[in-house]
Amino acid sequence: MWYYYGMDFSHFDRIVVHRIKKIAEPFARGALFIIFFWFGLLKVLGISPADPLVEALLKTTMPFMSFDVFRVFFGMYEMVIGLAFLVVGFERLAIALLLPHMVTTFMPLVLLPNETWASVLVPTFIGQYSIKNLIIIALALSIAAHLHPMALEKKTRKKK
Q1: What percentage of the chain reaches a pLDDT higher than 90?
Q2: What predicted TM-score, i.e. pTM, was given to this entire model?
Q3: Which of 114, 109, 101, 103 lies closest to 129 in space, CA to CA?
């Protein structure tokens, strides 16, 4: 069928893959920006649906800290992650900030099992919310895979 339109399927496939490669990284950056900035802003404004989970985790891990102060700090932290993913050149900062954030978001699976597990290997909706962060990690890794090693970046700048 493809042949009738003047190209075979492999030619069409190459065109599609080439176009996807052009948009994949900007789309990934935009998606991570939206997720982190938006969800962070909801925390800063005190209207995040994740607030009860964050508060329960905070009481378990740092009961001495005020939830209202932590919520604003955590929300701003997420907003910075989002902005760092959006701005070319700040990917390493974004990933460095993402690491402790991901550890924190997986903690409820261990520290709050009554809220995150319905039964063995059956997560609650909140548990699914934590587990889906594996997608965020994969997306961040795909952005990192397109970075040039810093040593190469310095050599390239010196040659110019």
Answers
A1: 82
A2: 0.86
A3: 109
